[in-house]
Amino acid sequence: ESEPLKKVLREVEKVAPSDSSVIITGESGTGKELVARAIHVHGPRQDKPFIPVNCASISGTLFTSQLFGHVKGSFTHAVSDKKGLIETADTGTLFLDEIGNISHEMQIRLLRFIEDRTIRRIGGLKGTPVDCRIIAATNADLAEAIKTGQQLGLDIVAKCYLVVLMRAELC
């Protein structure tokens, strides 16, 4: 085992038992999802769902529907109520991979969920409480992104992920 891998494994051991939100940074291909899964498997929600979401692969409007769900009739092809991925992660872990790729509008919606742990499906009127651990990953340089205001908003990092910052360097 390499020294960087040992360091990441020690970090996983430290953060896994808590229920804190975590953000994992690192270059593409360094095993950020493996680190997230290790945190989940060694954490208090290990027997609950682990729901990975690749934020880079889902476009704007579809992303909102995928994350938050929708109610029947809320748009043309909404023929039935549909749970979103956040609601599916209830009692488990929601893994937001490449979170730096989400739009500013989505950052605001996600921040609202993180603050009050309630989602509202598209077209829905009532909020639904969701209890899930959030682990996010990005290949962005967080310090630079915050400084230049380019990707992740300062609010999301400060309010949600300040508890733990680790850098995956497995290669």
Question: What's the short story on this structure?
Answer:
The chain is of the alpha/beta class and about 170 residues long. It has 7 helices and 7 strands, in the order αβαβααβαβββααβ.
Could you characterize what this model shows?
There is one protein chain. With 171 residues, the chain is α/β, with parallel strands linked by helices. Helices cover 37% and strands 16% of the residues. It contains seven helices and seven strands; from the N terminus they run H-E-H-E-H-H-E-H-E-E-E-H-H-E. It has helices at 3-15, 32-41, 60-68, 85-88, 104-116, 142-148, 154-161, and strands at residues 22-25, 50-54, 93-97, 118-119, 128-129, 133-138, 165-167. The chain is globular. The N and C termini lie close together (11 Å).
Number of helices: 7
Low-confidence parts: none
Supply Rg.
Answer: 16 Å
Name the helicity range: 25-40%
Overall number of strands: 7
Helix-strand pattern: HEHEHHEHEEEHHE
Mean pLDDT: 82
- Give the N-terminus to C-terminus distance in angstroms: 11 Å
Shape: globular
Which strand order does the major sheet show? 2-3-6-1-7
- SSE-based structural type: alpha/beta
Largest β-sheet summary? 5 strands, parallel
Layout of strands and helices, then pairs:
Blueprint: H1 3-15, E1 22-25, H2 32-41, E2 50-54, H3 60-68, H4 85-88, E3 93-97, H5 104-116, E4 118-119, E5 128-129, E6 133-138, H6 142-148, H7 154-161, E7 165-167
Parallel strand pairs: 1-6, 1-7, 2-3, 3-6
Antiparallel strand pairs: 4-5
